[in-house]
Design brief:
By secondary structure, the chain is α/β, with parallel strands linked by helices. It is built from twelve helices and 19 strands.
């Protein structure tokens, strides 16, 4: 079967035929139907997030269970599932405390199995969560899967695997946007568009989309932004103050993962407001914030992993929002591709030509 493999930092992925080990005890064999192409995959290729090559990337997928190992409960062959790139053990301090998105065993669960073999005999890592959705099939941990209704569109379900849960969750479950608030979203790619939709669901009065790319600002307006601004042409702080009687936004979201933009999000937030960092910078990067003003202005800085979502519950909630028309997932799918097109999809992402490219394995 085909898989797109990360073989070298800053190099294109290589599509190869790989073989898959048989499903073992405590494991699940999934045939992926669809996989989104997320910016986090590119961050792994660029070395912004640590993962040694070779590795099969992809972590935003929906598929069908085709095999079950001994000892797996609650799942069956034929079930439709969404992959969870942050598996949950259900037993650690964080899982029991309602913060499964920072499960202390997530990396151990996701990275403890290397079920693929390349033509040269080497065994690549599986990407985040052990999902490897850039392969047609994978062997994964059952706790890295959420069972979903079989009548939900699989292309749309794939987006819930990362971008939608991260963005909408940042608004609803991390920042807890309230009706009537004014918010700003810095970065309007796939996760930013999802955050905009989450703010709209929450009833935000003003949703300000900030992005230098005109195509992304246009999409942001289509998905619910009430204002949009190019920060390269307009002084963002002055623009925000002009809309808020000089105060700043109630909540600012940074969805790019750049320290300078994280600081910008802080600067445009009003005293008593919330600064919500969604994008992941280089793991070694640092950001400077005026320490005294954190206290004197009573601002809160919120980091959010996976939208602070408890995925077993909240992924189903997001599907219900989509069914009611509160979330437009179909509109976020700009193009369907095959796994052979993966490097072109990364290029389109960087150029702002797509919200999401989705690999369709049934094409």
């Amino acid at each position: 079967m085909k898989a797109a493999i990360f073989v070298e930092q800053d190099a294109p992925l290589v599509v190869e035929d790989v073989t898959l080990d048989p499903v073992g005890p405590g494991e699940v064999h999934v045939k992926w139907v669809a996989s989104g192409v997320c910016h986090s995959d590119l961050s792994l290729v660029k070395g912004k997030l640590p993962l040694p090559p070779p590795a099969i990337l992809g972590h935003e997928g929906a598929g069908i269970i085709v095999g079950i190992g001994d000892g797996v409960g609650g799942l069956a062959v034929g079930d439709h599932v969404i992959g969870v790139f942050q598996p949950t053990c259900g037993e650690c301090f964080y899982c029991k405390g309602g913060q499964s998105y920072v499960c202390e065993k997530a990396i151990e669960i996701g990275m403890s199995r290397m079920p693929f073999t390349r033509p040269d005999g080497t065994k690549p890592f599986a990407g985040p969560g052990g999902l490897a959705t850039f392969a047609e099939e994978s062997i994964v941990a059952p706790t890295a899967l959420v069972k979903i209704p079989s009548d939900f569109d699989m292309q749309q379900a794939a987006l819930i695997g990362c971008g939608v849960t991260t963005g909408v969750g940042a608004a609803l479950w991390a920042a807890k946007v309230q009706g009537g608030e004014t918010v700003a979203i810095i970065g309007c790619g796939g996760v930013g568009i999802a955050a905009i939709q989450g703010c709209k669901v929450a009833g935000a009065k003003n949703i300000i989309a900030v992005d230098p790319q005109a195509s992304k600002r246009k999409w942001a307006e289509q998905f619910g932004a009430t204002h949009s601004v190019d920060p390269n042409e307009t002084n963002l702080l002055e623009y925000i103050q002009g809309l808020t009687e000089g105060r700043g936004v109630d909540i600012a979201f940074e969805v790019v993962g750049v320290p300078a933009l994280q600081r910008q999000a802080y600067d445009i937030t009003r005293p008593g407001g919330k600064v919500t960092w969604v994008g992941v910078p280089d793991i070694s990067a640092e950001v400077s914030i005026p320490a005294g003003l954190i206290v004197l202005q009573n601002k809160s800085i919120i980091g959010t992993m996976y939208g602070s979502a408890n995925v077993k519950e909240h992924m189903i909630t997001l599907m219900e929002f989509a069914k009611k028309g509160d979330l437009d997932l179909k509109g976020m799918i700009t193009q369907e591709i095959t796994v052979d097109d993966i490097n072109d999809a990364f290029t389109a992402m960087l150029q702002g030509d797509v919200i999401r490219s989705v690999i369709n394995y049934d094409a």
